[in-house]
Every structure is written in structure tokens, then in C-alpha cells.
């Protein structure tokens, strides 16, 4: 009976979380003021609407959350990229990638890529919301898609070795805490900001989660737990003249 009750409790908590996240509305943009880059998107990106035409500079990542064992809170699935890749080799990232012409929206891009990279079947993931897009330093629009995995045991990771070296998970709440974290100040196009680095160790392995992935997870954790991080986030701020600028950056 214990395992059944625990399963029911997890399902109930995830249902409440799903309802909460479905009500999430991305912040409104004011083009007459400076805004932080993590809240900047292209004008066509309000909500999870597809662009009028295929845009090769669109991408999406899947923030796949599940309830950990022994009541240890929500956890997020992460990957370590293959060391043989030409870009970002060996770095920690969220499952995801660039949009393809057949993708109907950001959620489709994120879940398709997750299946290709780590064997996560889209049918196992309950997509509940899409956060405001981030922009990479290469001006790639990255939409964070939040999905809930109700049965973690149903997902057996099968990494595509050409892209993914390891699949692991970490506590989402970690990205709100000022523990095992350092930051470095940098400058880009006249705006000074912080790059955050989180050290994480599990089953004898050490990982560094930083840059765009860390920024997205800080934002996701803030939305899920409805509280700001316990540290200065300091994202880049730029002036948006008239039309939303594409000259924004998050490493």
C-alpha cells in the first residue's frame, strides 16, 4: 500500500503543478525601456505560436521535470554532450535543438529532439507551458518548454552517442540556491552581466552547469517555485528601439 499511496501523492502534486504552470504568462515587453535579455523574444514568439514561416534561428529545449524519490523534490533531466561534437563538446545541456520545417511549434521541436537525443518518448511527457525565449550569443532564439514526467521508471535513457555522452538528473531547486555556485562578470555589446556556474556531483561524477543552460534553469525554477533566486542574477540589459532587437545575448 505504501508504494501506491506514494504514487498517488506524486500524481496529485504533479497535477497541481501542471495547473499552476498552465496559467503562466510570459512577461509583457515594453520596447521603450531597457529589459533583461532573458525576457526578450522576437515579436512572433508570444506564447507558443508557430512563426509565419520557418525560421532556422529558432530552437527549443525540454525542461523535463519529475518527482524525485523519498520526497526530495522536483528533478530535471540533463545531458552531457558528446566529446566529439564540433560545438559545446562535453558541456551539460538540456535536451533540445534547432527547429525543423515540419515542427508545428516549440513544444514539438523540444519533444522531438528529446526523443532523438535520449530516447524520451513524447507520449510520456505532459507539456504544460513554454517560457519566454532566451537568445544565445549567436542570436539563436531558444524556447524553454516545461514538461512533466509522471512515471520516471517508464523512461529508460537511450542516448544517441553521436550527440549525448551521459543522461543524468539534478534537483531543480538547486538553481535558486547560493550553494555550489560561482559567477563571473562579463561584458557584451556594452552591457555587463553575470554568467552563473553550478557545481553538481552525483554517483561519483561531477558536472558543471553554466551559461545558457544555467540561465534557463534559474528562470524555470523561479517560475515553478514562484520565488526569485537567493543571489544576484544580473542579466544583460539593452534598449529596445521600436521593434524588439535581436542584438541580445546570454552565453
Automatic annotation (TrEMBL):
Nudix hydrolase domain mapped to chain residues: 56-195
Domain of life from the UniProt record: Eukaryota
Biological-process GO terms, alphabetical: acyl-CoA metabolic process; coenzyme A biosynthetic process; coenzyme A catabolic process
Any one Gene Ontology cellular component term annotated for this protein: cytoplasm
Manganese among keywords: yes
The UniProt record lists the keyword Magnesium: yes
PANTHER family named among the record's database cross-references: NUDIX HYDROLASE, PEROXISOMAL COENZYME A DIPHOSPHATASE NUDT7
Protein name: Nudix hydrolase domain-containing protein
Organism: Mikania micrantha
Classification lineage: Eukaryota, Viridiplantae, Streptophyta, Embryophyta, Tracheophyta
